[in-house]
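Subject: Protein record for review, amino acid sequence with backbone structure tokens
Category: Structural biology, sequence-to-fold work with a learned token vocabulary.
Format: Residues in single-letter code; tokens as whole numbers, each standing for a residue.
Body of memo: The sequence and its backbone structure tokens, given next.
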Amino acid sequence: MTNIQYKAFVVEEIDGICTQSIKPLQTNYLPMADVLIRVHYSSINYKDALSATGNKGITKNYPHTPGIDAAGVVEYSDNEACKIGDKVIVTGYDLGMNTSGGYGQFIRVPAEWVVKLPVGLTLKESMIIGTAGFTAAISMMRLVEKVKPKDGKIIVSGATGGVGSVALALLQKLGYQTIAISGKEAEYPFLRNLGVSEIIDRNQFQEVDKRPMLSAQYAGGIDTVGGSILENIIKQILPLGLVTTCGSVSSTQLNLSAFPFILRGVSLVGVSSQNYPKESRIEIWNKLAKEWKLQNLLELYTEIGIDDIKTAVDNILLGKLKGRTIVNMW
């Protein structure tokens, strides 16, 4: 196979200090695996920002190319499940963590990680969804099993972020009434365009309340931040309601009693998309391309180039990004 030179966003660690730059690399140096993919689009996620700034809980060895999302075209394959020219998506697994990720114009990954782009989605649209939207969709799958639109309002934390904004859009599409928690007053118009009926200021909602339960108001919740906000959501869920949680940027700790779970029958479901089973992964991508496809996808994203990744990484760590940010790799 021909060795191809390409550009990548590379993070290096020198004397404990991380630096980021765009560098020329060669496909011969990519890890050995079944499928070589020419990456057309990637996206910006919180986990990418951690990898790009030297978080050893995400990426152990440097130099490294982050990017937990990639969408592109198969350039070469040793596996009959993937054909040259196939349009494909790779999200999760070890991509962009300890395996060179989507911030390079080429990736090489196992065929098991690869999902064919479903009919109904473009490569760009798949990255507007990306890991964040895919995580929101897993949350929706769990929520709709137990909570119906007639049961009451759904509250969403981290509402302007990637998971939160896609979750709000999906909830609206499926007929749910939504409440958003946000600390970004300047982005309230963005949230209203997603159909939210009420916006609660984050500072108000994250106040610690030591009572074991609060007045029940919400049929369900989708939490993306953890900590006291998740505690207060759980304490306000109606009997037999369900809350999903997928993030811990606020805190990994929960300080609450078992009363909401025992006396109200509330369910708390943890969500992770990283190693989600392949068949279930395909099912969700097909839903996102068909009955769950968002007509307002193009209102949820900002597009940048490979040279803009560093700024976007800095901004997501500062909480300055809204919706989804995708990277056009060419």
